[in-house]
Amino acid sequence: MVNRITQKTLNDLEFPTVLQIIEAYCISELGREKVLQIQPIPRELELKTELNQVNEYLASFENENRIPNHYFDDITKDIYLLRIEDSFLEGNSFQKISSISATVNNLLVFFKKFREYYPTFFIQSENINLTTFLINHIDKMISPYGEVVDKASETLNGIRKEINRVRGKLGGSFTKSLSHYVSLGYLDDIKESVVDNQRVLAVQAMHRRKVKGTILGNSKTGSIVYIAPEATLQLTRELQNLQYEEKEEIVKILKQLTNTIRPYTDLLITYINYLSHLDMVGAKAKYAYDINACLPKIVREQKIYFKNAYHPILWEENKKQNLPIIPQTLELDKQQRIIVISGPNAGGKSITLKTIGLLQAMLQSAILIPVHERSEASIFDNILTDIGDNQSIENQLSTYSYRLKNMRNFLRKCNDNTLFLIDEFGTGSDPELGGALAEIFLEEFYEKGAFGIITTHYANLKVLASELENVVNANMQFDQKSLEPLFKLHIGQAGSSFTFEVAQKNGIPFRLINRAKKKVEREKIRLDKTIAKLQGERNKLQKTTDALEKEKSFAKENSEDLLIKQQKIQDKINSFQELYDNNQKMLSFGRKSNELINKFFQTKNKNQLQNEFLKWAMIEKSKHEEKKKEKIEIEHQKKNSDKEKPLSKRERTKINKEIRLQQKLKEDHLRKIEKEVLPEVKKARKKKKTIEREKAIVIDGYELQINDRVRLIDGNAKGTIDKIEKNIATINYGFFIAKSNVNQLELVQRVHPKSFPKRKS
After folding, report:
1. 612, 344, 608, 295: which is closest to 483 by C-alpha?
2. Rounded alpha-carbon distances, angstroms, from residue 660 to 615, 617, 653
3. Is the Cβ–Cβ distance between 254 and 88 less than 8 Å?
4. What's the DSSP call for residue 43?
5. What is the pLDDT confidence band of residue 757, given thresholds at 50, 70 and 90?
6. 486 in helix, strand or coil?
7. C-alpha–C-alpha distance, residues 173 and 235, integer Å
8. Phi, psi of 707 (to 5 degrees)
9. Which three-class secondary structure state does DSSP give residue 294?
10. Which H or E element spans position 485?
11. Which residues lie below 8 Å from residue 745, measured CB to CB, with a gap of 6+?
């Protein structure tokens, strides 16, 4: 890809204004400089890498692993000094270098650790050396405040110790002189001051000859003379000599450190470029976050599909004024290469054209754009623009001359990988002649396979757009009732200029508008009216369609809610039905059990009871299997419901065979369990019966009484004696009553525990 987008094109699209906005998001001066120098990136691989970096930085705002702080100080001048032989850096410069090295090291470690989150940043960081040599060496010599530390050399350490010793003696000597002259009353009220970093006595002018020392100055009024006491002069000279030696040693240390750092000059340049580039990428990402921008899909075939796109500068202005912004959706591809936009003045034609051009220029400069995330775009070799008046006084060019010169440039550069944007195509000359020439230019652009958008009021260009295969008309919508533009783009139909309506809205008297209408050809007015009427009808149709879509969506939501409620009610009904059926079944089982037990008490025939119970159980089993069979058939029919065919005889036979096989397997399994478990059950029953027998209260000679609890000698059921007649006892078991000879009964619980009446002999 060879990018040939000129600065004139970028200026036409107000691209520098966007850069000024992005600049404010930078955290360093070098970052700001880089932002203001942003240009469309000519190499496709480099462009995609930069776009991915901005997108990864933007994504970091929403995950827990945010990119670390990357603020840094500008060390450009320090790097320049490093390149000069025998030069040396100050302590603060070394501290900046150490800080930058630490910042870069942190970033390199971070991107290596989170390479899955930031793959593009990680690949870039792999080319940068991570070293702790600079940090360790500088920190040994320079304090966090940019001063050379005492331990930088033994000589410096000794000098500073000596300085501290002399300062101590100097302070003591000065204090002694101060006390002496205060007692004599020679000093002013302030007593002392500092001149040239040296403590001096504030002596009253009248006593200056009485104080021994060196005069270093006086006050503005001359009433005070500042004198260094004679006793401190020797110590002061000694201190000054030591301070000079200290400076010499510090310079020596700084030169040594500079010589040590000098071989790493290229690495420091790499660090600075890396951090300033990261600052620029971060500023782009912060800007994208604020305007809700994203990275559209980059496609190979020449195409622009911007969904819900808006102009970022207009968005900023409207945001300040609390005004809404209306997004536009526009598509250019091989089937729709050129769009001719018509419509009223101040209706949004130019801003739509500028929006597409600016967003494309931003994208090709690795800046994310405010569009829907499903938008798509390709990269164009060139973007050509003809926007605005552009009269040139210096070159003595009129508007039309300038435009003709521009068209010559367009014709020379246009190809199938060019995007051209022309505002008010053909204006600046006689409408008929200029329109004819514009028509020829449009045909040439079409023949060259270029992609583009033009805005115009010329009817012949609207007609040509409808005739050419890959050119379409579009219009900016206009509300004829309120005489207000709607700022909505509609593809597929030319628009009226609404010249007289716009004039009326801007306060031109109606009588003048009518006079103007009479001067225009009747056919042209009829054509304009027809276009306006069609546009009005289409607006109404669009409103109706939108309303129907809303109603349809609302009805669909309500229908889904009703279906959910209906399903819940049906589930409850099924649940209640199942519960009712189970209760009925249990009641039926209870009645049948009661009937069999009563019959047994009357006949005392165990075999008959067992046979009838087994017969009843087998009938219930056959009913259960029949229901199960029906259920399997229903499920099978549901599975095959998409075929909408009833089960064939062969399929039904197959299902019955499967059911019988399952039944047989279950019966065999039950027989096996019965064979294994039944002997154990019999043993357990026998043992339980023996235990119950042992627990029973049996008393020799005891005569059974009414209300005693008893049971049959060979039975388990317990009942209460209601009456005894001729050795026949009537026993109440609760849910039934039976009679038995008292000799066949055994006592379980007597009615009066304390009384034991004897049986009558």
Report:
1. 344
2. 20, 18, 10
3. yes
4. S
5. very low
6. strand
7. 9
8. 80, 0
9. strand
10. strand 484-491
11. 704, 710, 711, 712, 713, 729, 731
Give Cβ neighbours of residue 707 (< 8 Å, ≥ 6 apart).
Answer: 720, 721, 751
Distance CA 529, CA 642 (A): 56
Query: For 262, which DSSP code?
Result: G
Strand partners, 15: none
Q: Is 485 exposed, middle or buried (0-12, 13-18, 19+ CB in 10 A)?
A: buried
pLDDT for 663-710, tens place per residue?
Answer: 676 667 666 666 665 666 566 666 656 655 554 544 556 778 888 888
Q: How many CB atoms lie within 10 A of CB 33?
A: 15
pTM reported for the whole predicted model? 0.64
Q: Residue 653 has which token pair?
A: 């036979």
Q: What are phi and psi of 718, to 5 degrees?
A: -110, 140
> Which are the contacts of 589, defined by CB distance < 8 A and separation ≥ 6?
none
Taking the mean position of all CA atoms in its chain, how far away is CA 264? 41
Helix (H, G, I), strand (E, B) or coil at 622: helix
3-class DSSP state of 148: strand
Amino acid at 423: D
pLDDT band at 406 (very low <50, low <70, confident <90, very high): confident
Longest dimension (CA), the chain: 159
For 205-261, write each residue's pLDDT tens digit.
Answer: 888 888 888 888 888 888 899 988 988 888 888 888 999 999 999 999 999 999 999
Ordered domains of the chain (ranges, CATH): 7-150+259-292 (1.10.1420.10), 304-506 (3.40.50.300), 604-692 (no CATH), 696-749 (2.30.30.30)
Q: Can you name the residues that pair with 489 across neighbouring β-strands?
A: 476
pLDDT tens, position by position, 429-454: 556 666 788 888 889 999 999 999 99
Burial class (CB in 10 A: 0-12, 13-18, 19+), 698: exposed
